[in-house]
Amino acid sequence: MLVALMVSGCQNEKDEKYSLSGESASWASNIEVTFSNSGDKEKYFIGGNLKFKKEYSPPSVKYYLSYPSGEGNGTSEGKEIKIPRGGGTREASNNNIEKFAKDITLNVQWEDENGKQFKEKIPLD
């Protein structure tokens, strides 16, 4: 029983999930949004990944996620980046996962092997 809880991540059967994906000239991304109702608290969680499409491996990458209830960011390196799952409590009026997801934006800033800086917004749908 304990193993089943660990493998499932203790997710509620009533969790609602919505997936977004998008590509820019240099990056591809998949983002998953989860709305969860645990007890009397309504929560949201957002996580995903980024994959760099060019030949070289960026030595420094910063990503910025913004969404209706806040924002998140992180720093990493390399061609494949995991965006850790994060979240918070959502307002009772914010109960439409599709509308919530459509307001998510993802921006990426990185440098190449010569230190030149680049920025792109990844359109998500």
Overview of this protein structure:
With 125 residues, the protein is mainly β. 10% of the residues lie in helices and 56% in strands. It contains 2 helices and 8 strands. The strands form 2 sheets. The protein has a 4-stranded antiparallel β-sheet with strand order 1-2-3-6. A 4-stranded antiparallel β-sheet has the order 5-4-7-8. The longest helix is centred in the N-terminal third of the chain and has 7 residues, at 2-8. The radius of gyration is 16 Å and the shape is elongated. It starts with a helix and ends with a strand. 18% of the residues are buried.
**Morphology call:** elongated
Uncertain runs are 1-9
- Termini separation (Å)? 37 Å
Strand content: over 45%
Oligomer: single chain
How do the strands line up in the largest sheet? 1-2-3-6
**N-to-C order of helices and strands:** HEEEEEEHEE
DSSP summary, beta strand count: 8
Question: What radius of gyration results from the CA coordinates?
Answer: 16 Å
| Biggest sheet record | 4 strands, antiparallel
Kindly report the average pLDDT value.
88
Report the helical percentage. 10-25%
Q: Which class of secondary structure composition applies to the elements?
A: mainly beta
Number of helices: 2
Pick out its properties:
single chain; 125 residues; mainly beta; four-stranded antiparallel beta sheet; 2 helices; 8 strands; disordered N terminus
Please outline what is shown here.
The chain has about 120 residues and is mostly beta strands.
Show the helix and strand layout.
Layout: H1 2-8, E1 16-23, E2 27-38, E3 41-52, E4 60-67, E5 70-76, E6 80-89, H2 97-102, E7 105-111, E8 117-122
Antiparallel strand pairs: 1-2, 2-3, 3-6, 4-5, 4-7, 7-8
